């Protein structure tokens, strides 16, 4: 139980009760017992709600059909197996109907190019889970690059650190794995092992790692993340590891890593003070157990990356330095050693405009590929560093790229090649993976070579994508995409029905951009059945850079919700749908968006889906990782900030006297990022007032909501069946 829970909970969610917070902010919450994540009474309540879903939504024949259709997409052997180059092999993690937990496997590039690659299994998670009787979920792996001398001597890539989560929670374990012998290296044999916690290990060399984890009392931040990073030598007890850096009680996350680029090996310590305030230190050995730390002198709000001799700085705020002022959203570059020595000569590689923002920057061996969003459409540019000081960077364009849709870039091997993976997609075009060889002179690059393409999981004939702009309350133009059959997307004024069942999706937070992407599940379960899908690029996201994000921070959070409401109204005004046929969905921060649409704009929607949400903004900083998001929402323990936070706290905005559209709450018991108590409590509160509430909680899954394809398909089928029944 939480500290505030002093008596056993006995209130029924069906019993009307007063749960309003007094004006002085003193807690008065009879549903607090639902925050006891795995408490018997809380889980009894959860199972009762899940049983209601099983007896209603899941009994429909259409539910089974939809679940099967989505599962076929998720389990399809025809999907693109994404790979990472490790040595001379290409590694992939794969899940399908026969491998529920997944396979870590590898092949050669020659074999990968074929329609049916020959895969060698490295680690079978299903077999491991069965042997160890643990519900393992893959969290990834990091592999130590051998030194140039070792590679010259023919030594293989051997040392890996594998991260596994029990049930899909953010907390996981790290275990050393031998890639040659394909086995875990037991701690008794000198293998590195980190017990379950939020944190990680990072290679320094074959016998040394950085470790940041739960070392015991006082070593975690208020958000539950590591506050201390240490250097740990193989064969020694963890308690003997040497402290490299220790943050304060108010920090968010402390970590460290080594860059293994030959000739440019460097160690760094990263101090995250808050979500948008970071410090980066160069860590240098001094011949003693301690390391000398030198802070990189850039604004705390900036993001810094160091590659070979270059340092990139991406600005969130304006920065005046060296007699010049650089705009927020710009990408700057300097020679790293010169900058450390005091030189503040910076070159602008990208500066935002009214319609453009920086989506990413990727180094190859000789070039920097800059990805730009222009009205939420990707554009790529190749920048080549000058050979001499004072010479300009050379700009080139990449050939053969689509004019519309999303283009993502990944480097094949940044140490040795200029090869790029290009992933292209849009709402109606299956994802394609291409290989592009830039070479030292990108102006001579040939068109990308298509390596793999996803199949068409639904018939898009007669469907179209349109981009529109709605006008928010303060006059801001808000872009959104509409996807569906042409006769439905056109709107009533252009021959459409004007009553199309429409699903509106949004996020609007943490500078995350929503760009077009193909979804076989969405196509099968919604678009092919006459539904329209809409994505709103509201403020709070990153579609137009830091200013677009910062416009909806803290006291200005209402702007994100006003933007979303404006899109909802615009869809009706265009004659695409009606409010009765319009549903919306949001997850995580988007779940907070959905909660506010439900409580502040109930008249705009015929149904609302609130997924893995934040909802109780009075207590969010006290629940799991919530304290780390104060930079986004504000501090509810500060009375002045609570005054504006309470205006977007759905748990407190709920009014028993108002009419609300049907609502589906979904979450996961294993979500250790956004506490499941948020969804549980508002659902219970609304049920207690007799509102139309459906609640489903997956016992596994973490913040993603599902731990395997079967759970993901089941959860999605619940969503689509709910929408189908409520929106007609």
Which strand order does the major sheet show? 32-33-35-34-36-37-38-39
How many helices does DSSP assign? 16
The biggest sheet, with number of strands, parallel, antiparallel or mixed sense and barrel status, is:
8 strands, mixed
Helix content: 10-25%
Which descriptor suits the 3D outline?
globular
How many strands appear in the DSSP assignment?
A: 39
Q: What's the average pLDDT?
A: 92
Counting helices, strands and paired strands, the structural category is alpha+beta
- Termini separation comes to 42 Å
Report the radius of gyration as a whole number of Å.
26 Å
Write the layout of secondary structure elements.
Blueprint: H1 40-55, H2 61-75, E1 84-86, E2 89-96, E3 99-107, H3 109-112, E4 120-124, H4 125-132, E5 136-143, H5 148-152, E6 159-166, E7 172-178, E8 183-184, E9 193-197, E10 200-205, E11 208-212, E12 228-233, E13 242-246, E14 253-259, E15 266-274, E16 277-285, E17 291-295, E18 303-307, E19 310-314, E20 319-321, E21 324-326, E22 331-335, H6 336-340, E23 347-350, E24 356-363, E25 368-374, E26 378-384, E27 394-397, E28 406-411, E29 419-425, E30 432-437, E31 449-453, E32 463-471, E33 477-485, H7 486-489, E34 502-505, H8 520-525, E35 532-536, H9 546-550, H10 558-573, E36 582-587, H11 589-600, E37 607-611, H12 630-633, H13 639-645, H14 650-653, E38 663-668, H15 677-687, E39 693-698, H16 709-727
Parallel strand pairs: 34-35, 34-36, 36-37, 37-38, 38-39
Antiparallel strand pairs: 1-2, 2-3, 3-4, 5-6, 6-7, 7-8, 7-9, 10-11, 11-12, 12-13, 14-15, 15-16, 16-17, 18-19, 19-22, 20-21, 22-23, 24-25, 25-26, 26-27, 28-29, 29-30, 30-31, 32-33, 33-35
């Amino acid at each position: 139980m939480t500290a505030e829970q002093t008596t056993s909970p006995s209130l029924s969610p069906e019993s009307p009760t007063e749960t309003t917070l007094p004006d002085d902010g003193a807690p008065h919450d009879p549903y607090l017992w639902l925050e006891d994540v795995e408490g018997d009474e809380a889980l009894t309540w959860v199972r009762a709600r899940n049983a209601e879903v099983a007896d209603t939504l899941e009994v429909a024949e259409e539910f089974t059909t939809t679940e099967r259709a989505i599962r076929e997409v998720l389990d399809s052997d025809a999907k693109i197996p994404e790979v990472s180059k490790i040595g001379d092999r290409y590694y992939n993690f794969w899940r399908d109907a026969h491998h529920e937990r997944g396979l870590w496997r590898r092949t050669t590039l020659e074999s990968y190019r074929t329609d049916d690659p020959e895969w060698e299994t490295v680690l079978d998670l299903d077999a491991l889970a069965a042997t160890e009787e643990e519900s393992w979920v893959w969290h990834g792996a990091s592999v130590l690059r051998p030194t140039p001398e070792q590679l010259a001597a023919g030594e293989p890539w051997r040392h890996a650190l594998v991260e596994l989560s029990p049930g899909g929670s953010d907390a996981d374990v790290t275990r050393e794995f031998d890639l040659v012998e394909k086995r875990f290296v037991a701690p008794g044999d000198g293998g590195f092992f980190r017990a379950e916690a939020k944190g990680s290990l990072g290679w320094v060399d074959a016998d040394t790692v950085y470790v940041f984890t739960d070392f015991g009392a006082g070593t975690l931040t208020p958000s539950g993340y590591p506050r201390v990073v240490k250097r740990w030598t193989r064969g020694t007890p963890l308690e003997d590891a040497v402290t490299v850096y220790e943050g304060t009680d108010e920090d968010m996350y402390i970590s460290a890593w080594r860059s293994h680029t030959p000739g440019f090996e460097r160690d760094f310590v990263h101090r995250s003070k808050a979500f948008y305030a970071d410090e980066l230190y160069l860590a240098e050995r001094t011949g003693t157990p301690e390391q000398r730390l030198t802070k990189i002198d850039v604004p705390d709000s900036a993001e810094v990356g160091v590659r070979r001799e270059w340092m990139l700085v991406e600005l969130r705020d304006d920065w005046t330095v060296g007699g010049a002022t650089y705009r927020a959203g710009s990408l700057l570059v300097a020679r790293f050693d010169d900058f450390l020595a005091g030189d503040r000569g910076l070159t602008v590689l990208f500066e935002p405009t009214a319609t453009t923002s920086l989506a990413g920057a990727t180094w190859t061996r000789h070039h920097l590929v800059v990805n730009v969003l222009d009205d939420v459409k990707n554009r790529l540019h190749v920048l080549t560093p000058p050979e001499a000081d004072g010479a300009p960077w050379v700009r080139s364009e990449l050939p053969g790229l689509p004019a519309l849709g999303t283009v993502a870039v990944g480097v094949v091997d940044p140490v040795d090649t200029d090869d790029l993976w290009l992933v292209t997609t849009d709402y109606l075009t299956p994802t394609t993976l291409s290989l592009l060889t830039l070479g030292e002179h990108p102006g001579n690059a040939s068109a990308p070579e298509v390596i793999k393409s996803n199949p068409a999981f639904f018939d898009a004939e007669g469907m179209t994508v349109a981009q529109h702009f709605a006008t928010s309350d303060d006059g801001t133009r808000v872009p959104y995409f509409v996807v569906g059959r042409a006769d439905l997307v056109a709107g009533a004024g252009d021959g459409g029905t004007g009553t199309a069942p429409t699903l509106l999706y949004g996020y609007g937070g943490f500078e995350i951009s929503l760009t077009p992407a193909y979804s076989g599940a969405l196509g099968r379960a919604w678009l092919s059945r006459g539904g329209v899908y809409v994505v709103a690029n509201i403020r709070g996201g990153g579609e137009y850079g830091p200013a677009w994000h910062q416009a909806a921070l803290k006291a200005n959070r209402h702007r994100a919700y006003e933007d979303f409401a404006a899109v909802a109204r615009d869809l009706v005004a265009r004659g695409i749908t009606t409010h009765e046929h319009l549903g919306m969905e949001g997850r995580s921060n988007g779940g907070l968006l959905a909660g506010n649409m439900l409580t502040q704009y109930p008249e705009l929607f015929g149904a609302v889906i609130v997924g893995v949400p934040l909802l109780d903004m009075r207590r969010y900083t006290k629940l799991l990782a919530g304290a780390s998001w104060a930079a986004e929402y504000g501090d509810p323990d500060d009375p002045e900030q609570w005054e504006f936070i309470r205006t977007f706290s759905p748990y407190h905005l709920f009014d028993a006297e108002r009419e609300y559209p049907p609502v589906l709450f979904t979450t996961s018991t294993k979500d250790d990022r956004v506490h499941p108590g948020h969804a549980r409590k508002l659902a219970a509160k609304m049920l207690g007032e007799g509102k139309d509430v459906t609640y489903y909680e997956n016992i596994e899954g973490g913040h993603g909501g599902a731990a395997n394809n079967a759970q993901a398909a089941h959860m999605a089928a619940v969503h689509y069946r709910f929408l189908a029944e409520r929106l007609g």
